[in-house]
DNA sequence: ATGTCAAGTGACAGTAACTCTCAAAAGGTG
DNA sequence: CACCTTTTGAGAGTTACTGTCACTTGACAT
């Protein structure tokens, strides 16, 4: 029971005020409680009220942090990471390769830092229809972002049909790799699977 | 006002009993009422109760015909058409080409018979997030079906990663073509757009 | 025709995911 | 310590659904 946060009110340790720290704590508490309950009794069988109780906050607060129950599972910050990684690729690289490498790097980063959550989340997405649908929505947002990047690199317009198809194919392939991964108990090498799927695209869908 | 359905109770005209005919009528009535209201005041702003009232049935009945509000828009019978079309392709044809042609034929058939509904539906799917998500779900079902067909043709297992990627890419490309189509006011040639997207895939995502 | 059975319908009650509003509590600041 | 802003919880309301049950209405045999 040693005091973690002591009296000194002058400067909050990590540059964040108490308020901000509490927000992060609450967010985590809700998430953790939710994941634990989902694990134990399933997503659909877990009402938000119960999550609130387990996280020791009011239901209103849960909805303040996560606009929908689905968001408790799906909210992430991967897009900026991916965008940065793709933009950081050398300009000489072909656009498709840039995306390929950028996306792979971003995923590798996630694997290295967040593998536990990635596993739980991917499993839930695979199993719960409502989450699958919502996840596709999120993917569409990533697609818009990547279309922007690819459009810049190629000088094509953002809403160019071909650009969109390239992005949709790449993201779809990655998604398939992830689903395959959970189907096999998340034992295989995810990055390797992703390479296999992207190879199929590079070969023009040859089998 | 010549009597359409007269007394003869022996054999119902089109092979369907009165019961079946009424069911179809009710289904159509609900759908039409819904589309009309969605058009006028938007999807989210239209409660199911109002649709029920407009279609002159009880809310319970609406849910009996369509398990969710989204299904009123999204329920279709395209999958069997697509499956049949793909299976009908000659065995010598490369699997990817078979899917390409089958899917295109199916779509052409839909365009020829149902273009009005296709337009309304696609527009709604584009605009309403809830429908986008649910539609992606439906696409996943089509994907499972097509994976089965492609697996048969290639002798690969149904859950083969490469097979899944091929299907995901093709369906994703078609989806992009459709979205592009509505974005441009549904004036361009849809089949032509689809060809362009599938060409991108065949070229290995070359731009 | 008519009685019987099965299918379809509507009224009603209940659950759960949100949404909105407002007052109390807690953090930040001079 | 007093003041102001942000965050929280309580409560009421909406809407998409689910389940039950009694009632109606086609179907079909007699």
UniProtKB/TrEMBL annotation, chains A, B:
Recorded superkingdom: Bacteria
Record carries keyword 4Fe-4S: no
Ranges for region Disordered: 1-21
InterPro entries: Homeodomain-like_sf (IPR009057), HTH-type_TetR-like_transc_reg (IPR050109), HTH_TetR (IPR001647), MftR_C (IPR041347)
Gene3D superfamilies, per the entry: Homeodomain-like, Tetracycline Repressor, domain 2
Coiled-coil ranges (or none): none
Single annotated GO MF: DNA-binding transcription factor activity
Pfam family, one: TetR_N
Protein name per Swiss-Prot or TrEMBL: TetR family transcriptional regulator
HTH tetR-type domain span: 24-84
Entry keywords, A to Z: DNA-binding, Transcription, Transcription regulation
DNA-binding region(s), chain positions: 47-66
């Amino acid at each position: 029971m040693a005091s973690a946060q002591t009296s000194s009110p002058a400067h909050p340790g990590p540059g964040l005020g108490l308020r901000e720290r509490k927000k992060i704590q609450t967010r985590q508490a809700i998430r953790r409680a939710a994941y634990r309950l989902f694990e134990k009794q399933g997503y659909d069988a877990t009402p938000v009220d119960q999550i609130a109780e387990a996280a020791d906050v009011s239901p209103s607060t849960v909805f303040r942090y996560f606009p929908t129950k689905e968001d408790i599972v799906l909210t992430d910050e991967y897009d900026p990471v991916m965008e940065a990684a793709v933009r950081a690729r050398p300009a000489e690289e072909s656009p498709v390769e840039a995306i390929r490498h950028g996306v792979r790097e971003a995923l590798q980063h996630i694997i290295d830092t967040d593998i536990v959550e990635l596993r739980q989340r991917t499993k839930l997405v695979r199993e719960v229809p409502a989450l699958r649908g919502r996840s596709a929505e999120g993917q569409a947002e990533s697609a818009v972002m990547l279309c922007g990047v690819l459009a810049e690199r190629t000088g094509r317009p953002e809403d160019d049909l071909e650009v969109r198809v390239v992005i949709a194919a790449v993201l779809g392939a990655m998604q398939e790799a992830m689903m395959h991964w959970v189907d096999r108990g998340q034992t295989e090498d995810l990055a390797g699977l992703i390479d296999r799927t992207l190879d199929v695209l590079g070969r023009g869908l040859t089998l």
